[in-house]
Amino acid sequence: MFKEIWQEIENAKHIVLASHKNPDGDALGSSLGFYNVLKSLGKNAYVFNVTKQLPPKFDFLEGFSKIKSNFPLKCDLLISFDCGHFDRLGIDRRDFTLINIDHHKSNTLFGDINLVDTLAASSSAVVFEMLNSLNIKIGRDAANCFYAALVEDTGFFSYESVNKEVFDIASKMVDAGADPFFVAKNLRERNSLGRMRLTSLFIDSLKLYKNGTIACGRVTQEMFKKTGALRSDAEHLCNLARSLATVELSILYIEESNGRIKVSLRSKNFIDVSKIALKFNGGGHKRSAGFETDEKDLYLLTRKIIRESGIL
Ligand code: 5GP
Ligand code: MN
């Protein structure tokens, strides 16, 4: 399949690299890493993400400023990174070949070619391994992108997905020029006061259910306004609530600017939250998943989610 993918890339004139809306580090890191590899081979590509305000936290990744939120007129090959569902790209299906590179358990295999490894810790690990086995040179900029994606999707090597292979891949990324301290400093030591204030308001909103095994908190548009925090400043909150000692399931509601509710789900030990998210037409991984809904009654929604979780 690697050779088939590379053949498509060699034949294509207008390549677009895309990732899911409200991108995380893996979505941006894997697409930008690939962009840097193509660039060093003298091949041009267009990096697309439908989200207008990208998380500035990732602005140190080479090529970040090149990401566009408008889809180009010409595209004969679209490569999708870290996206489990075609709808999440925010693109109309046109006459292009579609390659889907991902690691989500809930991936719907929407591509003409699907390179989906659900055992991989990050999409960047899937891309990195492909490039390695094709013997394609990965430079420092690309390595930093792939490494940043890997640390973001493994919680800096702390999630269940972390095993010897993850450390082996990380080590190969460092061999290729990734700088762990540079990446860590940029990702973890540049918080804004608005983000901290938003965290504080979120903590005030927390409620616990079922003997403290379920935590549920929310972020409203008013809270964003009050603190000056960005949409991407809410991305760590669901994990934060899960970190409470008694919590197995953490639920986060984010009120979007269009009034819809974005739901994030995290579990600690045994609940498969991707199954819960699928019931609400979302998706994700075993311990991290999400969906969007028009349901405004959060009390009702919480009850529905708790019922699906099976926690008695
Ligand atoms: P988050 O809660 O941080 O937005 O997302 C957690 C995980 O679930 C990520 O892997 C993300 O890609 C996936 N996810 C979140 N929301 C949705 C959704 O609406 N649909 C699908 N298919 N996956 C989602
Ligand atoms: Mn990912």
Write out key terms for the chains shown:
38% helix, 5-stranded parallel sheet, alpha/beta, 11 helices, binds manganese (II) ion, 6-stranded mixed sheet, 312 residues, Diaminopimelate Epimerase, Chain A, domain 1, 11 strands, inorganic pyrophosphatase (n-terminal core), binds guanosine-5'-monophosphate
CATH class of the largest domain: Alpha Beta
Tell me the CATH architecture of the largest domain: Alpha-Beta Complex
Helix content: 25-40%
Based on CA inertia axes, which overall geometry fits?
globular
Portion in strands: 15-25%
Brief synopsis:
The protein is built from 11 helices and 11 strands. The protein has helices at residues 2-11, 25-40, 123-133, 140-153, 164-175, 180-188, 193-205, 221-227, 237-242, 273-279, 298-309; strands at residues 15-19, 45-48, 77-81, 97-102, 113-116, 207-209, 214-219, 249-255, 261-267, 283-284, 288-293. The strands form 2 sheets. The chain has a 6-stranded mixed beta sheet with strand order 6-7-8-9-11-10. It has a 5-stranded parallel beta sheet with strand order 2-1-3-4-5, covered by helices on one side.
